[in-house]
């Protein structure tokens, strides 16, 4: 992201005030956030500049790839169309092209189901830095053979073909370059595919397995340090008949190098959310059970003080020691719609040091309720919405999604400068502020879904395509999008 993130949040909130009063956070809170993020941003900008200087001497291509974090973007490259007809991509927001600069020549390539692509220039993967995104495209409807197209998206919108592979991968971590840590599936020759984790070569498609990870292990989260959090079922066939780990197992921390460390023993987690500093994780051991905070250094566990008869869903970490959650009466399903307003729902802040909680606000008729968020900076989140309210009575439990900024107890819609073509399914930090995933039909995987990815600037609302798709039968959609240092998960 270019520029100061807190300034972007502030600008986005100011712009929204033209339509909604009373959503601006406390000025004193924003001032403190501004100061913290400015200090962190200066440090990151300096490190990016150092990386760029080293890459110029080694690669000889950094001049046109632009490795600095806050640099003038590359011009959009408009290749001469190939002789064969190329389907028209789904219409979407347009952006103003940057000033012309020298770009490397590249040849248009055509891949069935994909938007227009360019051949990958030599050294492109090694030079990919901030602003570049590795994409995995796959079928939108799972009724055919497995297929994946890997592409590299430039900050200026060009889309380069990396490789096609009948063996899909899921990213665990990509640090830039041609190697990506990933999960793939190897065919045993008898029609059974076994998951294997290791280093995948984006150019050759070769996978070097990591014997520290077994086939039944489940990847949970990538920590800011680059260490990985995995769940391993206990030995002795604890995996279910479908191969999915179940019952009791071990929470393991797998470093980049060296032996894994067991953090604690627990049941298969229903969800795991890691704190911004990577020191703790809030764990739900099974859907509908209580929540515990696990210290990832010591394994110590602190239950969240959820009152009897109440259920809570974690939204995101607000900072290193507090969690935002939505809580409601825990009642048995009746077959009828159970609106949050009727279940004494409220938004709650938990202090993980004590397990205690503090009410942020009650949920009343017409409210937006935060759900499935990501940390932006202390006190500020990008969140989706929980649809189980009368505000979404027309679609009730299928309208999860949207992109909102949470700060000082208020949800403010992220407002792109130009309308996106589909529904917003989810959003996370990345790109020029946010990476936003869109799709049709309330983001279900059905015919007509598009599954595209966009970058949205939080200050200006400017939109640029990161992972476009075609609006036609047989089109491939974006399954994951990974920036350097990222796992690609939503």
Quick recap of the structure?
With 490 residues, the protein is mainly beta.
Commentary on this structure:
The protein has 490 residues and is mainly beta. The protein has a domain at 212-303. The protein has helices spanning 5-16, 27-59, 62-65, 124-127, and strands spanning 108-109, 117-119, 133-139, 148-153, 159-165, 169-173, 179-187, 193-201, 207-209, 218-222, 228-233, 248-254, 261-267, 271-274, 280-284, 291-295, 301-303, 310-319, 322-329, 346-351, 357-362, 369-377, 380-386, 401-407, 410-413, 423-430, 433-439, 452-457, 463-467, 476-482. Strands 1-2-5-4-3-30 form a six-stranded mixed sheet, with no helix packed on it. Strand 3 (133-139) and strand 4 (148-153) form a beta hairpin. Helix 1 (5-16) crosses helix 2 (27-59). The longest helix has 33 residues, at 27-59.
Described by the principal axes of the CA atoms, the overall outline is: globular
- Which structural class do you get from the secondary structure elements? mainly beta
Q: How far is the first residue's CA from the last residue's CA?
A: 17 Å
Beta-strand residue fraction = 35-45%
Cα radius of gyration in angstroms: 23 Å
Overall average residue pLDDT = 79
Low-confidence stretches: 1-92, 94-103
Number of strands: 30
Q: What percentage of residues falls in helices of 4 or more residues?
A: 10-25%
Largest sheet data? 6 strands, mixed
Q: How is the largest sheet built, in terms of strand order?
A: 1-2-5-4-3-30
Number of helices: 4
């Amino acid at each position: 992201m270019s520029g100061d993130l807190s300034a972007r949040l502030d600008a986005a909130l100011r712009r929204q005030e033209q339509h909604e009063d009373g959503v601006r956070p406390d000025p004193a809170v924003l001032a403190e956030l501004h100061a913290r993020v400015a200090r962190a941003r200066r440090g990151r900008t300096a490190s990016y500049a150092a990386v760029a200087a080293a890459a110029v001497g080694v690669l000889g291509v950094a001049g046109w790839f632009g490795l600095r974090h806050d640099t003038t973007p590359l011009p959009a490259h408009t290749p001469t169309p190939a002789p064969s007809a190329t389907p028209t991509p789904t219409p979407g927001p347009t952006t103003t092209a940057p000033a012309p600069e020298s770009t490397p020549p590249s040849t248009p390539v055509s891949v069935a189901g994909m938007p227009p692509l360019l051949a990958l220039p030599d050294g492109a993967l090694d030079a990919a830095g901030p602003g570049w995104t590795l994409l995995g495209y796959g079928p939108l409807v799972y009724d055919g053979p497995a297929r994946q197209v890997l592409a590299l998206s430039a900050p200026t919108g060009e889309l380069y073909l990396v490789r096609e592979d009948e063996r899909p991968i899921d990213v665990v971590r990509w640090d830039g370059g041609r190697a990506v840590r990933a999960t793939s599936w190897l065919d045993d020759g008898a029609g059974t595919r076994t998951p294997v984790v290791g280093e995948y070569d984006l150019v050759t498609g070769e996978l070097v397995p990591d014997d520290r990870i077994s086939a039944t292990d489940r990847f949970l989260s990538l920590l800011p340090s680059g260490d990985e959090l995995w769940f391993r079922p206990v030995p002795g066939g604890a995996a279910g008949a479908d191969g999915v780990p179940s019952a009791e197992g071990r929470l393991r921390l797998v470093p980049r190098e060296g032996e894994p460390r067991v953090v604690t023993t627990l049941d298969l987690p229903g969800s795991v959310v890691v704190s911004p500093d990577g020191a703790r994780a809030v764990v739900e051991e099974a859907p509908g059970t209580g929540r515990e905070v696990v210290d990832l250094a010591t394994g110590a566990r602190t239950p969240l003080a959820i009152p009897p008869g109440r259920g809570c869903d974690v939204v995101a970490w607000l900072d290193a020691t507090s969690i935002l959650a939505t809580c409601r009466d825990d009642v048995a399903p009746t077959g009828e719609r159970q609106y949050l307003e009727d279940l004494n729902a409220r938004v709650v802040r938990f202090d993980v040091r004590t397990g205690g909680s503090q009410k942020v606000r009650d949920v009343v008729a017409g409210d937006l309720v935060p759900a499935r968020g990501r940390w932006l900076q202390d006190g500020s989140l990008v969140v989706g919405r929980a649809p189980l309210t009368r505000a979404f009575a027309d679609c009730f439990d299928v309208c999860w999604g949207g992109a909102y900024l949470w700060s000082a107890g208020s949800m403010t819609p992220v407002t792109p400068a130009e309308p996106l073509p589909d529904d917003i399914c989810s959003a996370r930090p990345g790109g020029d502020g946010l990476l936003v995933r869109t799709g049709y039909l309330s983001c279900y995987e059905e015919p007509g879904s598009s599954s595209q990815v966009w970058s949205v600037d939080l200050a200006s609302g400017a939109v640029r395509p990161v992972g476009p798709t075609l609006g036609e039968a047989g089109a491939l959609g974006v399954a994951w999008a990974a920036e350097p240092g990222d796992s690609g998960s939503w």
